[in-house]
Amino acid sequence: MTKKLFLDTNIVIDMIDDARAAHPKAKATLVKIIQNELEVYVSEDMISTIYYILRGNPKVLLFFQSILKEWHVVPFGSQVISEAIALCLGGGGDLEDTMQCLCAKKHGCTLLLTRDLTFTDCGINVVTYEQFLAS
């Protein structure tokens, strides 16, 4: 069975922007993804978010063009958004992180890779670069 890996927005930004301190870890992550033939998932909303953040970087659109051929770009949908809002109203938490986690779960991902050490727990394995690269 192929492992499904969901990437948080900060990981994808690290992959594109070589000025970020975590860029070398992001490159190593890409190599591991390819070597292990992992299925990669990202949420469609991160495309516009990343473009806005890195809009001066000429690699952004080329990166998006490339990932559309290989990665699964998936929507949240109103059910995930509603569930995330309810969870955040009930116990706080970051809405974006909660939506990312629930989206990953909805699409059957077994891992969610992030740099956020306090990422929302929605019942899937959330890992950092160090954990992912050591596994």
Walk me through what this model shows.
With 135 residues, this protein is of the alpha/beta class. It has one domain (7-134): 3-Layer(aba) Sandwich (Rossmann fold), CATH 3.40.50. 56% of the residues lie in helices and 13% in strands. The chain contains seven helices and five strands, in the order E-H-H-E-H-H-E-H-H-E-E-H. The chain has helices spanning 9-16, 23-35, 45-53, 59-70, 77-91, 95-106, 129-134; strands spanning 4-7, 39-43, 72-74, 111-113, 125-127. The chain has a five-stranded parallel beta sheet, with helices on both faces. Helix 1 crosses helix 2 and helix 5 (77-91) crosses helix 6 (95-106). It is globular, with a radius of gyration of 14 Å. It starts with a strand and ends with a helix. 28% of the residues are buried. The mean pLDDT is 93.
What is the CATH top level name? Answer: Alpha Beta
The CATH architecture category equals 3-Layer(aba) Sandwich
| Shape type | globular
Class inferred from helices and paired strands: alpha/beta
Oligomeric state: single chain
Quote the distance from N terminus to C terminus.
17 Å
Radius of gyration: 14 Å
Tell me the domain tally.
Answer: 1
List the helices and strands and how they pair.
Elements lengths: L3 E4 L1 H8 L6 H13 L3 E5 L1 H9 L5 H12 L1 E3 L2 H15 L3 H12 L4 E3 L11 E3 L1 H6 L1
Helix pairs in contact: 1-2, 5-6
